[in-house]
Description:
By secondary structure, the chain is of the alpha/beta class.
Amino acid sequence: xxxxxxxxxxxxxxxxxxxxxxxxxxxxxxxxxxxxxxxxxxxxxxxxxxxxxxxxxxxxxxxxxxxxxxxxxxxxxxxxxxxxxxxxxxxxxxxxxxxxxxxxxxxxxxxxxxxxxxxxxxxxxxxxxxxxxxxxxxxxxxxxxxxxxxxxxxxxxxxxxxxxxxxxxxxxxxxxxxxxxxxxxxxxxxxxxxxxxxxxxxxxxxxxxxxxxxxxxxxxxxxxxxxxxxxxxxxxxxxxxxxxxxxxxxxxxxxxxxxxxxxxxxxxxxxxxxxxxxxxxxxxxxxxxxxxxxxxxxxxxxxxxxxxxxxxxxxxxxxxxxxxxxxxxxxxxxxxxxxxxxxxxxxxxxxxxxxxxxxxxxxxxxxxxxxxxxxxxxxxxxxxxxxxxxxxxxxxxxxxxxxxxxxxxxxxxxxxxxxxxxxxxxxxxxxx
Length: 432
């Protein structure tokens, strides 16, 4: 007896999945006690199949050959994007098939519809690979931490952005130069917009919030800011001040109000999360019973992500063996609760502020005076070098302040005649 699986999409991750099925079948059999059969693979372009020595009879360019096959019980979708991925998943569900996907963009945007369709047909859906590559964070939130009321999540969950920031700090090189190097070495896509602008991170954070806090959130409700304005100067000052800059996904549940944001963030170099460099990912989760936990590993790549995909297939196959479905609801909450999403202007944080101003008397007093008028107190000030008649960087670290007050103060400071560049801010996070 065997359980039949269909794979739609033979790109990088699809190749990894096919390799596991064809080369690690003994491990899969040991876990299940019966065979997992990769019965059919569908992709418009089957060039990659040549590298796997797959039998031609399991290959097709038509996904319908998988969706309409009554013997296939589990469908894996790895083509990405919204369409035709969404239509394929909904068709598979309508045919009573269980589904596995790594498609974080689709789940963040249309997850509610897909989860409801799966509930109506009483089929399972696995999406471990949608966040953190090979890191088992989805299963940890749904099962391992289920006894907790989760308080907050802090995640470095985009390897491209983390790699770029790491290389900028090491080489003291500007953003554009490091981005080009990352593209040349395959660490960044030809179009890196989703990665460097924080959009990919926001997709993943939306999924984590639904799992951690039992509430639905839209992408529009997540404040999102990328890393393209970070300069080597910011990284240098950050290091001198005892911090590291990371593109951080932050989510907090305070009295049933959710704080959800993605932006460059300064965190103390003493935090374990600050040591996560290169293309690695990490998710730091705080629960009311378990305390602080951190999940670390490769956040992308063929083998780590394929590992997560196949783990979902094994989990669903075990349910099929026991003739059960939906032992755990997709978001782990049987009853979701509508919670208010906090406006970014109402958050309270400490801030790193960098100004570029002419080297003239009274510059510091003018800037600090405006900050004081807006209820912002300073923790420290750095002004390096002198350049009479030219611009110099001024860095100020604030105590906790209201975001709205910070923005109003910066708008006013930006109008001063001696300020030569738009003021730059980076939020500071305490991991609590």
